[in-house]
Design goal:
With 193 residues, the chain is α/β, with parallel strands linked by helices. It is 54% helix and 13% strand. It has a five-stranded parallel β-sheet, with helices on both faces.
C-alpha cells in the first residue's frame, strides 16, 4: 500500500461536489492506497508552492501528484514557462525528500461553456487559456522525459473522453468535470499509479 498526496486546484478538490465524489476519493476507494487530498479551489502554483512543506513533505508520502495550471492562466498570474519552472522546483523538492513526483497535465477547458457558465466576463480569453494549457502540457511532458518524472497526460485522456461523451456529459461548467468526468479521471489515475 502506498501513501499518495494529491495537491493542486479545484479539480483535485472536486468542485462543486462533495469531497467523496471527486476523482481522488474514487481512486482511493478503488486502489486501497492511503490517499490524502490537498486540493484548494482557486489555487495556483504559487499557492501550492507556499503550502508544499506542510501539505506534502510533512506527510512523508511515497508519491505526490501535482495538478495545477488552469487558474494561473485564467487570472493571468503566470505564463506556461513560469508555471513549469515552479512545478519542476516542487518535483525536485519532493525527490530530495525521497518522494516520487507525478505530474498531471491540466485538463482542457471548453471555451464556449466556460464563458457562459464559469466566469462570465470579457477579460478572460478562454481560447488563450486553452492555448496556454496546451503549452504547459507540452513542457510537462518534455520535462518528464528529460528528468525521468512520471507525467500522466490527463489533458489528452480527458480530451478524448469529451469527444466520446460530449461536452455536456464531461463538464459541469467548461472547466470542472461532472461526476461522470471524475469517475473517468479516477479510472485513468488507477491505470498509471
Amino acid at each position: 500500500m502506498s501513501k499518495i498526496v494529491f495537491i493542486g486546484n479545484s479539480i483535485i478538490n472536486g468542485f462543486p461536489y462533495d469531497r467523496n465524489q471527486e476523482f481522488v476519493s474514487l481512486y482511493r476507494q478503488a486502489s486501497g492506497n492511503e490517499v490524502i487530498n490537498k486540493g484548494i479551489n482557486g489555487d495556483t502554483i504559487r499557492g501550492v508552492a507556499g503550502r508544499f512543506a506542510q501539505d506534502v513533505l510533512a506527510y512523508k508520502p511515497d508519491q505526490v501528484a501535482i495538478l495545477t495550471g488552469t487558474n494561473e492562466f485564467i487570472y493571468k498570474e503566470a505564463l506556461p514557462e513560469q508555471c513549469m519552472k515552479e512545478i519542476a522546483y516542487l518535483a525536485e523538492l519532493a525527490r530530495k525528500q525521497h518522494i516520487e513526483p507525478v505530474l498531471l497535465t491540466p485538463l482542457p477547458v471548453d471555451p464556449v461553456m466556460a464563458k457562459s457558465r464559469w466566469m462570465v466576463c470579457d477579460d478572460v480569453d478562454y481560447e488563450l487559456v486553452q492555448e496556454q494549457i496546451t503549452e504547459l502540457k507540452k513542457r510537462m511532458i518534455l520535462y518528464g522525459k528529460e528528468n525521468y518524472v512520471q507525467v500522466i497526460d490527463t489533458n489528452y485522456a480527458f480530451s478524448e473522453y469529451v469527444e466520446k461523451v460530449g461536452v455536456q456529459t464531461a463538464y459541469y461548467d467548461g472547466i470542472h468535470p461532472t461526476r461522470e468526468g471524475h469517475r473517468f479521471l479516477a479510472e485513468i489515475i488507477g491505470r498509471f499509479l
